């Protein structure tokens, strides 16, 4: 089954890929690896903002991380990398805008991790970092970047 068919089966529509907010490329391919810059969580076109443990609850944080994962996939498509070329989600880095005593960053990051497993199955399982930070660009609740192995075109 193609990944587009899998997305349809799951009822997932990818968002429009967000434009960079600074001087960087959203996706850089080197060899068989696609490096996807940190993606912010857009839900229904609106950025999810705030801090976990303050004005964003755990469920909203998990949904925001899932939205980051959808944006990672949208950036691959925008870079003209077919999702069927994905060989492995190698590593995700999740940054969670959180108060100092919030310790559920791994649970928040599961929003992205679980999405990748839903979409890609075993090749969606990956290494990961999940860290708390005091602030993110545009006051985003979560930011996730990725390293993805892809086959040649």
Any overview of this molecule?
- This is RidA family protein.
- It comes from Pontixanthobacter luteolus.
- It holds the Pfam family YjgF_endoribonc.
- Residues 5-142 form the Endoribonuclease L-PSP/chorismate mutase-like domain.
- The chain has a single domain, classed as RutC-like (60s Ribosomal Protein L30, Chain: A, 2-Layer Sandwich), CATH 3.30.1330.40.
- The protein has helices at 3-10, 58-78, 105-120, and strands at residues 27-30, 33-39, 42-43, 46-47, 86-97, 127-133, 142-150.
- Helix content is 29%, strand content 28%.
- Strands 1-2-7-5-6 form a 5-stranded mixed β-sheet.
- It is of the alpha+beta class.
- The radius of gyration is 15 Å and the shape is globular.
Helix percentage range: 25-40%
End-to-end gap: 18 Å
Give the overall average pLDDT. 97
So how many helices?
A: 3
Alpha-carbon Rg, integer? 15 Å
Share in β-strands: 25-35%
How many separate domains? 1
Order of helices and strands: HEEEEHEHEE
CATH superfamily: RutC-like
CATH class: Alpha Beta
Please state the structural category. alpha+beta
Low-pLDDT segments, ≥5 res: none
Pfam families: YjgF_endoribonc
Organism: Pontixanthobacter luteolus
Protein name: RidA family protein
Domain Endoribonuclease L-PSP/chorismate mutase-like: 5-142
